[in-house]
């Protein structure tokens, strides 16, 4: 009688190719690598681009604080602080008095920051288009899936541990 070998891991899937988490991690790493390469000529990390783009986008309609930028981007507050500090040092954002909260500083994108992010967003979107080209026919469905996952994370549906 031949004994069936035990699986190498006590997993519910037969291997990494069937693991949504592993595939997301692998895809995310590939996407981040391409974004880093695309943003390198602009001297921006992807986190810096995200913060600068969000501050440009949302800052046009509301005064932004560091806490609000962290909330809008989904970047943890400590990292947001470090990114904002780097952007401020580079002259891409400025902090000033907040119009309604005397304890807070308002974050504003400088003219140089707006010019840079306007160029960078074109490259980032072209990078996205190239990366997602293999599933282009399913873009609307993919976006809905991403939005559902993002909404679940915002509602506390994902475990941060």
């Amino acid at each position: 009688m031949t004994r069936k070998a035990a699986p190498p891991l006590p997993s519910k899937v037969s291997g990494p190719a069937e693991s949504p988490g592993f595939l997301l991690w692998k895809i995310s790493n590939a996407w981040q690598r391409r974004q880093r390469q695309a943003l390198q000529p602009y001297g921006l990390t992807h986190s810096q681009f995200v913060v600068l783009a969000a501050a440009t986008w949302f800052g046009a309609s509301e005064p932004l604080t560091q806490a609000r930028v962290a909330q809008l981007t989904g970047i943890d507050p400590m990292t947001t602080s470090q990114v904002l500090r780097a952007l401020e040092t580079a002259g891409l954002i400025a902090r000033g008095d907040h119009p309604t909260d005397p304890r807070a500083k308002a974050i504003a994108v400088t003219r140089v920051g707006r010019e840079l992010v306007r160029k960078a967003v074109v490259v980032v979107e072209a990078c996205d288009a190239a990366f997602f080209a293999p599933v282009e026919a399913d873009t609307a469905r993919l976006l809905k899936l991403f939005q559902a996952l993002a909404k679940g994370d915002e509602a506390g549906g994902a475990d941060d541990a």
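The beta strands are 93-97, 105-109. Helices lie at 20-39, 46-59, 66-73, 77-89, 111-132, 139-154.
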